[in-house]
Automatic annotation (TrEMBL):
Claim: Repeat is one of the keywords in the record: yes
Gene3D superfamilies with a match to the protein in the record: 2.60.120.200
Name of the encoding gene: LOC111359284
Protein name: Galectin
Pfam short name (any one): Gal-bind_lectin
Stored PROSITE patterns: GALECTIN
SUPFAM superfamilies (UniProt xref): Concanavalin A-like lectins/glucanases
Top-rank taxon, per record: Eukaryota
Galectin domain sequence ranges: 11-138
Keywords attached to this entry: Lectin, Repeat
Molecular function terms from GO: carbohydrate binding
Amino acid sequence: MTTIVNPQVPFTRPIPGGLSPGRTITIEGAIPPRSDRFAINLQCGSADIAFHFNPRFGDQCIVRNSYISGHWGAEETSGGMPLVRGEQFEAEFKCSEGHFTVNLNGKHFCDFPHRIPYHKINHINVDGDVNIRHVTFADA
């Protein structure tokens, strides 16, 4: 297990050991009271985003998407907005063979199918109106 403590946002870091089925990335942080949006991106280098996780408080939804070869894919927005401005949160991204499972504050939020093979994902990026306490990379 590897943990990054109190990283400055925005930040981009390599994912230690890459991703494989059973690996989990957990992000613990706090959402500022006036936050508009933030993004957690699982990237393939600096160009492609395999999984863009983007809470948008003004729209009251969490957009999920991918950015491949210079183009955004189809947005997924179902599930509402379980995150609350001014509160702490925990977001867990678990890699499986066919998709990511996302749990927010210990509850299942969504599954996001792999649009890029998981073994190509090698960086995490967090940007926007959010404070991060811990980013933990763990094996099953």
